[in-house]
Amino acid sequence: MYQPYPSGGQPAEPPRPPVPAPVLTAVKLMYAGAVISTVDLIISLAFIIGDNKAGHATLNGHRLTAAQASHLYPLFITVAIVSGLVVIAPWLWMARANRQGRSWARILSTVLFGLATLELISVLPQSVISFSGLAGLGLIFWLPTWLVGLAAVRLLWRPASSAFFKLQGVTQAGYSAQPSSRIGSSSSRLPRRL
């Protein structure tokens, strides 16, 4: 059977196996985690803007004056946006990398979930004690986000998912290990030694 030789002297990349259902579901859950984190960011920004307009801004339990709040307002907004994007970006990155079958992404997703678990454990007692205001609202978003992460990581380590990641690793290693043959190169004209 005739297969056209790809341009550039590199052999064609082998076809990728289909992504199994558990990995697809995990990827969808990761996108859901990004959406939940985006909603959390928007609500946090609304609280910051509302507190500033109402004159209820506080920092470490101390009520800020109007002058202090207006001076620190851009900093609060910037910190909220950056910290929100720091949470959203890994969700999207891990979803894409896991869909491509990158085994390092499955491991990194598990490590990130472990870090989120440690953070939830540290935030949970404070949120339960003061279930009013932004601390209580943080728990409302942390818990669903954590549950989404738990479900995604569990799906990434299912047997069908493990076989997919293993096959992708073998396919990538096999493809990168193939020597490139160039027609008319100087090395192809040299005699071989036995």
Structural notes for this entry:
Strand 1 and strand 2 form a beta hairpin. It is built from five helices and two strands; from the N terminus they run αββαααα. The protein starts with 20 loop residues before the first helix and ends in a 17-residue tail after the last helix. The protein has 194 residues and is mainly α. Helix 1 packs antiparallel against helix 4 and helix 3 packs antiparallel against helix 4. The longest helix is centred in the first third of the chain and has 34 residues, at 21-54. The chain has one domain. The chain has a two-stranded antiparallel ribbon with strand order 1-2. The protein has helices at 21-54, 66-99, 103-129, 133-156, 159-177; strands at 58-59, 62-63.
Give a short overview.
This protein is mainly alpha-helical and 194 residues long. Helix content is 71%, strand content 2%.
The major β-sheet equals:
2 strands, antiparallel
Distance between the termini: 33 Å
Which outline best applies? elongated
Question: Looking at the chains present, what oligomeric state does this protein adopt?
Answer: single chain
Domain tally: 1
- Report the order of strands and helices: HEEHHHH
Sheet with most strands: strand arrangement? 1-2
| Helix segment tally | 5
Radius of gyration: 25 Å
Strand content: under 5%
Query: Overall pLDDT, averaged?
Result: 78
As a percent range, the share of helical residues equals over 70%
Number of strands: 2
Q: What class do helices, strands and sheet pairing give?
A: mainly alpha
Low-confidence stretches: 177-190
